[in-house]
Amino acid sequence: MSIDVIIEGIGVWSPALPGWHASQDVLTGRAEPVAAAGARPAASLLAPAERRRAPDSVLFALEVAQQAAAMAAREGSTLRGVFASDHGDLAINDYLCATLAQTPEQLSPTKFHNSVHNAPAGYWAIATGCMASTTALSAGDCTFAAGLFEAALLARSEDAPVLFAACDLPAAGPLADVVSCRTPFAVALVLSPRRERGGAALRVATHVDSAAMGQTRPSTLAPEPALLHAVYGDNPAARSLPLLVALARGDRQTLTLQAGPRLYLELEISPWLN
Amino acid sequence: MPARIPPLAITAYTATCAAARGLDALADALRERRGGLKENDLAEHPLACFIGRVAGLEETRLPAGFAHHDARNNRLAWLGLNQDGFLDTARALRDRYGADRVALVLGTSTSSIGETETAYRHLDADGHFPPEQRRDVHQPHSLGMFVQDVLGLDGPCLSIATACSSSAKVFASAERLLRAGIVDAAVVGGVDTLCGSVLYGFNSLALVAPQACRPFDAARCGLSLGEAAGFAILERRDSTNSHMHKSAPVLAGYGEASDAHHMSAPHPQGLGAQLAIEDALARAGIGPADVEYINLHGTATPQNDAVEAALIARLFPAATLASSTKGWTGHTLGAAGIVEAAITLLALERGFVPGTLNLETPDPVCGPQVIIDNRERAVDIALSNSFGFGGNNCCLVFARAQAA
Fold first, then answer.
1. Confidence grade of residue B404 (pLDDT, cut at 50, 70, 90)
2. Where are the domains of chain B?
3. Catalytic residue among B297, B366, B394, B395
4. pLDDT tens digit string along B147-161?
5. Average pLDDT of chain A?
């Protein structure tokens, strides 16, 4: 059983990949990734006051969502939204848990409402005036693949374009003892059920390897270029890198993403057509 | 408007909350108007309020092979799975369809954050997690990982976390997986537990009532937090086990929409909620006059109930009955969707409509739909509303098999 969609728009943001167009040379291996120290996404969609209040999880997700929607030439308000993150906003979780251990009565109401896993979805809907459905999900290490599958299936089931954004952020405070992520990474795709404009065809199929027992298959899962893998290998949202590299190269490619302990997504990517 | 969907059979379901463990006890508690809200006695979170606490979780132990998943939320998941024979029924799906042909879609807003809070209270001298806390539970998908492990499933597995609509939206995700033929069955559900984050978080927003919550009362002053677990199994009605499927109640529709208004306050006219309800009715192929009962979101916060009551009065005829059951359960957040789905299914299957516990004087904004007392009457078609932070709205349509 496979699902066919068209990728109409792409967004990416990390300190070394500041936008889809600006990242082409790095993704195709023509340039080395150079991380701008202390760089943060502009997320210009947000009003200045909201941008100051918004947590990083929101800034990153909205930045890439905005890029992808602009590339697809679609208004954000017309897109259903699927927002995926393994851990959500770890800096907020660190704040919540540390404050609860010391001075629970002083918990910040703004931090609390920003702590919900669907905060990026909520801010996106508010910023774009989107009244369509939005969802937020997690599937551990496999969050990117699980979110991509949910989004592709939603586009086909509803026969409507879908914004898919995945973002994970560095661990903060003592949470770094149990969360390995050290680099921020966000990616977004606009997926359409049919070809209406430029885009790359994506076929997604699931495959269960009942003998896999949760082991990854390095031969098919190793992202390229290796340098990017070294930088972003700890970030669940960066599991999107093989797909981004394939899109940047513009080749016809098949690749495999782990989507569960024994579940895999087989992706078939066709060259971009205008 | 969306196209009509083929109804899905709900071949099993269960719920565990402060008022009851399992469906029979829950039906009794509803009929006898015994709520589960009590004064907060959680020693580690001494906030003066009422809570809907599930007794005995402190003593609950996960079986040896699953002990690494230990957290209050996963203990409640285990307790919930062990009611109404649900665990055996769900495991049998694996044998009938194959582990890869069964999806698992669970909703939660807290997941195991309570366990992370515990770790922070017991950091070592250098500010690090103690060894016993260096486990995989400190993440939103902790619930999904645990239940997937327990049920031995290999199909798509997701934790949906859209605050208080989480475990309503699981029905929508599962329906899409089933309609596309990706899987032959889906286990859906949700679990949320009391923890410091939600008690002090809702307190910081001045949304927690000092006494047991009073949904839709003119004098309501906030919600009571609760904890709960619930699960359901969805299958296509044309599947092999047709005898069971023909008599099972159905998921007839669902609707999802966003407010695009505010992170923690509802749209003043309830526009996102209205879109979700209209979307759900269209998918079910019915109109407002076909709806006999609505289990409302009804949190008992001043704003939610004012907006929701006005919306129901505007959209539905006077004959539609509507109530909030949060006076029994408290607001169980990410589990509210599945618990209230179970209550709605009980209403369909057992022929009674729960009223609204702790409601004495309805807010003047309430239409004739909002009821205080229980009613003994047959119900063929009913809705369940769930609205969450971020303006995330979901409405589910359930129907008796004969009405589908």
1. confident
2. 8-403
3. B297
4. 999 999 999 999 999
5. 92
Question: With an 8 Å Cβ cutoff, is A104 touching chain B?
Answer: yes
Residue B164 annotated to the active site: yes
Residue A219 is predicted with a pLDDT of: 38
Cis peptide before A225 (omega within 30 of 0): yes
At which residue do the structure tokens 């589908």 appear? B404
- The C-alpha atoms of residue B372 and residue B297 are separated, in whole angstroms, by 15
Output the CA–CA distances (angstroms, integers) from residue A118 to A159, B144, B161, B272, in the order listed: 23, 17, 7, 16
Say what the ipTM of the complex is: 0.97
> Which residues from B are below 8 Å from A96, CB to CB?
113, 117, 197, 201
Q: What is the pLDDT of residue A107?
A: 97
Using a CB–CB cutoff of 8 Å, tell me whether A166 touches chain B: no
Q: How confident is the model at residue A220 (pLDDT cuts 50, 70, 90)?
A: very low
Q: For residue B334, what are its two tokens?
A: 């990410």
Number of C-beta neighbours around residue A141 at 10 A: 20
CATH of domain B8-403: 3.40.47.10
Confirm or reject contact between B180 and chain A (CB < 8 A). yes
Average confidence (pLDDT) over A2-23: 95
Q: Is B274 on the interface with A (CB under 8 A)?
A: no
- Tens digits of residue pLDDT in B136-188: 999 999 999 999 999 999 999 999 999 999 999 999 999 999 999 999 999 99
Confirm whether B297 is a catalytic residue.
Answer: yes
Which of B295, B289, B276, B271 is CA-nearest to residue B371? B295
Distant-in-sequence, close-in-space partners of A21: CB < 8 Å, separation ≥ 6: none
Lowest mean per-residue pLDDT among A18-32, A142-156, B278-292: A18-32
- Inter-chain CB proximity B45 and A104 less than 8 Å: yes
* Domains (range + CATH), chain A: 8-197 (3.40.47.10)
Output the 3-class SS for B203-235.
HHCCCECCCCCCCCECCCCCECEECEEEEEEEE
**Is 50 exceeded by the pLDDT of residue A171?**
yes
Q: Choose among B214, B225, B211, B222: nearest CA to B359.
A: B214
The pLDDT score that the predictor gives to residue A212 is: 64
Contacts of A242 (CB under 8 A, 6+ apart): A221, A223, A224, A255, A257
Using the structure block, give the residue that is written with the tokens 């302990």. Answer: A261
Q: Which of chain A's residues have a Cβ under 8 Å away from the Cβ of B100?
A: 206, 208, 210, 262-263
Q: Which of B116, B139, B260 sits opposite A86 (nearest CB)?
A: B139
pLDDT at A224 over 80: no
Identify the three-state secondary structure at position B247.
helix
Considering only the beta carbons, identify the residue of B121, B179, B203 that sits closest to A157.
Answer: B179
